[in-house]
Amino acid sequence: MLMTIVGIYSLYILITIYTSVMQIGYINSAKRQAAVLLTQDAFLKAGNYSVAKEKLSIINSFVDYLIFIVWIDLGIKFLQSKLYFLDETVTNVAIVMGFIIINAIISLPFAYYEKFILDTEFGFNKSSLGQWIKDTFISFFGPLFGVMVTDYYLIKSQSISNKDIYSTTADSIYYFSNGWHIQGCYSIFIGFIFSAATIWNPNLM
């Protein structure tokens, strides 16, 4: 199973890099032709911008794959040694979540470079760093409230224990795993990563 995942992801990375390389070749070839709808300067500017983005995409793909290989070799062993007391399904979710979170964090410098250096250099950036950080912070609350509403209306059927909700003792029905609802935390972080990813990478919107 693990080797199948490695093979599929390796194929995905190869296709992504190959597509970017072919796109760069096509754009460089098109830049030697005369502009039709744009002025020649605007046409060349758009071409140079697209080439720069594709080169950044290639570097990002290499880094993603490196993170994936390291995670397969070291990260899974680490999580399995720490989560041995959980069932297999929860452990597998933790492994996937770990890779998604680490990959998202490592991708932040690339998102910052593309948004505030590359886009600014070519005059396509219309937002500020403060707005970007603010949007990222706000994207956390959607999944948080989503989990709260789902838990209250669907899982607990609008029924809560007023006595236990304020209790910090182990006999409380809300004590879960030392006071943490592991599945709820997974749900929030997964939702946050997918929500924030559309801010870090507008192409996902």
Compute the gyration radius: what is it? 22 Å
| Oligomerization status of the protein chains | single chain
Which structural category fits the helices and strands? mainly alpha
Q: Tally of extended strands? A: 0
Gross morphology is elongated
Provide the β-strand percentage band: under 5%
| Stretches with pLDDT under 50, minimum 5 residues | none
Average pLDDT reading: 82
Instruction: Calculate the terminal CA-CA distance, rounded to whole Å.
Output: 31 Å
Order of helices and strands: HHHHHHH
How many strands, what sense, and barrel or not for the largest sheet?
none
The share of residues in helices is: over 70%
Total of DSSP H or I helical runs spanning 4+ residues: 7
Textual characterization of the structure:
The protein has 205 residues and is an all-alpha fold. It has 7 helices and no strands. The longest helix has 43 residues, at 40-82. The radius of gyration is 22 Å and the shape is elongated.
Q: Topology of this structure?
A:
Layout: H1 2-30, H2 40-82, H3 88-121, H4 129-138, H5 141-155, H6 162-165, H7 182-200
Helix pairs in contact: 1-2, 2-3, 3-7, 4-7, 5-7
Can you describe this structure in just a few lines?
Helices cover 75% and strands 0% of the residues. It has helices spanning 2-30, 40-82, 88-121, 129-138, 141-155, 162-165, 182-200.
List keywords for this structure.
7 helices; 205 residues; elongated; mainly alpha; 75% helix
